[in-house]
Amino acid sequence: MPKNKIGVIEKTGVDAEGLEIFRVRVEAGTREKRAAKRVTIHGTMRDAHAAASMLYIELNSSLSERDIPEITLNQYFYGRFIPAPEKEGKTNSTIDGYVKNYRKLISPNHGERVLLNLDETNVRNLIEQSGAPRNTMRTYRAILNRAKWDVFMRHKEVG
User: Fold this and answer.
1) What residue spans of the chain are helical by DSSP H?
2) Fewer C-beta within 10 Å: the chain N or C terminus?
3) Per-residue pLDDT at 61
4) What whole-number distance in Å separates Cα of residue 127 and Cα of residue 24?
5) For 79-137, how does the pLDDT look when each residue is reduced to its tens digit (9 = 90+)?
6) Among candidates 22, 13, 52, which has minimal Cα distance to 36?
7) Cα separation of 64 and 74, whole Å?
8) 3-state DSSP call for residue 110?
């Protein structure tokens, strides 16, 4: 039963379609006032981490800056960033472009970094060393702006 910084993810089996089944549990709050949410996910471990991120967001809808969760860029991208444009009615080609650019240009080097630990120098270096700096900058800017809006980063200019 792996425990990450957000919650507990337990693999419980495989469904009829061959997808893994995960039980995800997230708790938040203080000792006096604790809240918990659970969900079952049919998919990959990445899907389970994304679900944990979403549950954490739901439980902590009014975070102060000192309570910003330490989630990785991958967890944020798949758990919060990608579902948002889908809900806003963005076209599939826009979403596919974000996913393609993220997987190819950003995730290999920065995907496992904690959002709060990203600094301007690291982001600029990745963009400058990228094979497609314009696409990298456009995608990274969209992700970081949304992360600031969702209060997963401090409102300091990056990128």
Assistant:
1) 45-59, 73-76, 83-88, 92-101, 107-110, 120-129, 133-149
2) N
3) 59
4) 34
5) 888 887 767 777 888 888 999 999 999 999 998 888 888 888 989 999 999 889 999 99
6) 52
7) 22
8) helix
At 150, give phi and psi (nearest 5°): -80, 0
Q: Taking the CB of residue 13, how many other CB atoms lie within 10 A of it?
A: 10
Which among 147, 136, 148 is positioned nearest to 101, based on CA atoms?
136
Distance CA 67, CA 88 (A): 27
d(CA 36, CA 116): 24
Element (H, E) at 24: strand 20-29
Closest CA to 71 of 56, 59, 86, 87: 56
154: confidence class by pLDDT, cuts 50, 70, 90: low
CA gap 117, 137 in Å, rounded = 18
pLDDT single digits (tens) 2-51: 455 678 889 999 988 888 888 888 887 666 666 777 878 888 888 788 77
For the question of whether the overall pTM of this predicted structure is more than 0.90, the answer is no
